[in-house]
Amino acid sequence: MAAIAAPRLLRAVPIVVLCSLLLHSTQHVLAFKEHEFKKCAQTSFCSRNRNVPQGANFEIIPASISLNTATLTATLLNKPYGKHLQLTLTSHADGFVRLMVDESPSVGRYQVPSDILISGWENKKQGFTENSRTASSITLTTGETKLELNFQPFTLAITVKGQPALQINSRNLFNFEHRRQKQDSDPAGYWEESWGGHTDSKPKGPEALSLDLVFPGFQHVYGIPERATSLSLRATNGAAPYGEPYRLYNLDVFEYLDDHPFGLYGSIPMMLAHKKGLTLGVLWLNSAEMFVDVVKERGQVGSQWVAESGIVDLFVFTAGSPAGVLAAYARLAGPSAMPQLFSLGYHQCRWNYKDEADVKAVDAGFDTHDIPYDVLWLDIEHTNGKRYLTWDSSLFPSPAPMQLDLASRGRRMVTIVDPHVKRDPGYYVFAEAEAAGHYVKNKYNTDFDGWCWPGSSSYLDVTSPAVRQWWAQQFTLDRYSGSTPHLYIWNDMNEPSVFNGPEITMPKDNLHAGGVEHRDTHNLYGVYYHMATAEGLQLRGQQADPQDGDRPFVLSRAFFTGTQRVGPIWTGDNAAQWSHLRVSVPMVLSLGLAGLPNVGADVGGFFGNPDAELLTRWYQLGAYYPFFRGHAHLETQRREPWLFGPEATARIRAAIRTRYSLLPYIYTLFRAANTSGQPILRPLWFEFPEHEELFAVDEEFLAGPAMLVKPVVAPGVGQVEVTLPGGARWYDAATGALVPPAAKTKSHRVQVTLDAIPVYYRGGHIVPRRERPRRSTAAQAADPLTLVVALDEQGGAEGELYMDDGRSFAFQRGGYLHRRFVFRSMKLVSSAQQVPAGGVPEGTLTLPVSIERVVFLGLPPSRRGYKAVVGGSRQAVPLEAGPLSLVAAPGAEAALVLRKPDLPVSHDWEVEIVAV
Ligand SMILES: *[C@@H]1O[C@H](CO)[C@@H](O)[C@H](O)[C@H]1NC(C)=O
C-alpha cells in the first residue's frame, strides 16, 4: 500500500496519534498530491534537454568506421565540445539490432548489469552485409533489416521488410552530456539541485542523454509502462496534463489519477510502434530516471527520450509482427516465468485480516458461499511491529497450524515482506544485515536511515549479488519462523518507498555496492528485491525437493525489464471508482506489450468503498486479469464477496467460477508466455494487425487469441457497444449464438444485465475448459475437460492444451503434456503439440484426465442433425443441442454437444462428425 499519509505529516505527528486520526477519518477524499512530484520543468536534466534545439552537433568521423561481421564501430564527434563518443552497432540473430553510445575513452558510466537480461544472447550474432559506402554514409543489411548510417550530421535510418521503421536523430535532438569538471559558469542545477526541502549533491555533475526516435508512417505507439492512461499513447504536447512527458521513475504515488502521463511504481523502457504491415519495438536499457515525449505530426510519431545518466543502449526489435517483436524481446530479456497453477486462481487480500480467527472466518466464508478461491493474504499488520518475517504473537500465535489448516483444503497463504528493515538492534534481520554491511549507504557512506512503516528503517542493498544471496537465505523454513511450504510472499514498497525522502523515495546521491549512485540504478531496485525474494522461495523449494523444487510465487509492486522472469506485479493503489476500473484495461494491456504479462489490478479498488454494482463489474472483468486478486485499504469497509446481498454474491460467485472454468485455457496461455513471450491479454490490434480501426481500441481486449472480452465500466448500463473485428466469426460465450458475420469491423449494440459482461469466442479457435464448480485449483486437478470448438468461415478450428503438475520445475525436464487440437473437414484430431525451438524438451507426462464434452459452435445447419464417430469405434453418438456450459443459463442452446466421449487427454485420437 502507499504512503498512507503525507510524508510531512509523518515527520511531524507521532505515529500513535496518526493512526487514530486515520481510523477516525470517515470520508475518504481522493487526492493525488501532484505538488509532491517533480515535473520536467522542475528537473534540471529534463528541462535542459527537452525541446532544446540541438543543431547538427554530432558527426560520425568517416575514417573511424570499422565493420567486422556483425559489429560496426565508429567515433562520434560532439562538435561544440570537441569530445568523442564510441558508437557500436551490432546485429543479432534473435531479431534485433543494438546501438550503443558511450564516452570515448570510457569514464565508467553506469551500465545496466547483465543479469537484468538472460545470458547467452550476445553470442547469437547475425552478420551485416555492406551494401554501399560513400563519404557521407554507409548502408548495411542484416536479414530483412536495412540500416543507413549518415555521418554529417549523425543519423541512423532503419527499414524493415522494405518499410521505413525508425529514424534515429532525424530531428537532431540527440544529446550526450560528457562528464566534465565543475566550472564557475555552470548554470544552477548542474552540480546541485534542491527540491521540496531535499538537496541532491550530484557529485558527477550533468551527465544526461537524449535520444531522438521517429517512427515514420506510424500513428500509434504503445508501452513504456507504468501509468494510468490510454493504450495508444497520446502526444505530450497537448493540453494539461498531457503537456508533460511520460516519466519512467519508480515511485510510490499516493492516490494516483486515472488519466495522467505520470509514471507510477514500475518502469519498462520498451515502446512498440504499430502500423499496417509493420510492428517495431525499441528498448532503451537504462535504469536512471527517464522522460519520454511523444509528438504526432505529418503522418509520423516522434519521440524524445531523456535519461539522467548511464549510456545509450538501444535495442530495436525488427521481427515485424507484434508476436515476433515480443518473442524477440523474450529472447533478450527472458520469457515470463511459468506460474504455479494455484496463483492463477482467485486471491483474497485485505489490509488487514486481523487475526487467526478472522482468517478462519474468511476462509470458511468462501466455503459457506460456495465461492472458489486459492490464497488468503496477510498485510503488514500480521508482523511484530512491521518487522518482516516475524509475527504478531498475540494476533497470530500459531501461524504454522493456521497455514496447515488452509492447506488441508488445498489453499495457500501469502504474507507481505518489504525492503525497509526496522532499525532495531534486537531484530535479527536488522542486526545481521547491519553487521554484514548489507544496507544502502547515504552520501556520507554510512547506512541510510529512512522513514517507512516501522519508522526509522534501513534498506537492503539488493543491487549487490551478495546481499541478494543473503536475503534469499532468510526464506528457508528454519530461518523464517512460523512459515510452512504453503506460504508465499508479497513484496510491496520496493520502488523503494521512503516516506521522508524526495518524492517519497531514496535520495539519488545514496550509494550502492561498488560506489554506484542510487541515481543510476533507481529503477532496478524493485526487480532486484523481487528477484532475491523469489530466489529465497526457490531455495526453500529445492531443500524440500532437490530434483523438481517448487516454483516461487512473489508478487511485486515495483518492476523493470526482467521482472517477467520473476513473478507477477499488480497496478498498485487504485481506487474504488468506475474510471479506475476502466483504466485497468489499458494498464494491463500496456504491461503485456512491454513483455510483462502476469499482472492485475486490485479488484474492487484499493481506496474507498465500492458499491455492489462496481464490485460485481470488477469481478466480472478481474476474472480475466492474468493475476486476479481482491484487495482493500485498512480504512475501507469489509468487502468479502458475500457481504453485498444474495444477488451480488451469486453474480460474484459466477464471475469467479468463470475464471476457474477457464484455467486450462489460461494456463496454456501462460505456457505461450513462458516459451515465446506472448501476452495473456492482448489489444485487438495484436491479433488483427491490419485493422487500422482497432489500433486505438482499449475498452475491450482479447484473452489469448480466442476470447474477446468487453468489460462494463459504467453504472446502470443496460446496453454496450461492442466492437467486433471484421472478417472473423464471433460467438456469444454465454449462449453460443453466432453474431451475424461482417466483412468489416462493426460496432454492435448489445443488451447487458448485471449478471455478466459480454464475452465472445472467436471462430477458428478451440478453448479447453473445466466446468465443475470446485473450491480451489487443487480440487479441480482430476476433473475432466470440455473443449469448445468455435468454427471459422471455412468450418475449421485449432487450439492447444498445456498441463503439468502445476507447481514444480519438472516441466523443464519434460514433465508436461501439450496437445494440439485441429478440427478440419469435420474431423477433430488430437496430437502432440510441436515443441518450440530453444531447448524445450519433449513432453512426457500422461495424466488420467479425460475430455467429457466437446461443444461445437457454428456447425452448418443439418436437417436431421449430426452424429459423432469416436476414433476406431463403430458406434455413432448423436450430437445434442444443449447448453454451452454445464453452468450456463437454461435456454442457451445454440451449441451442439458431444456428451461423454471420454477422450483421454494424454493420447492421440480422432472424432469424426457426420450429418445424419
Ligand atoms: C519458464 O518458466 C520457468 C519457471 O519460471 C523458467 O525457469 C524458464 O526459464 C521459463 N522458460 C522456459 C522456456 O521454460
TrEMBL record:
This is Glucosidase II subunit alpha. It is found in: Endoplasmic reticulum. CDD domains: GH31_GANC_GANAB_alpha, GH31_N. Residues 1-31 form the signal peptide. GO terms for biological process: carbohydrate metabolic process; N-glycan processing. Residues 87-293 form the Glycoside hydrolase family 31 N-terminal domain. The keyword NAD does not apply. The keyword Protein biosynthesis does not apply.
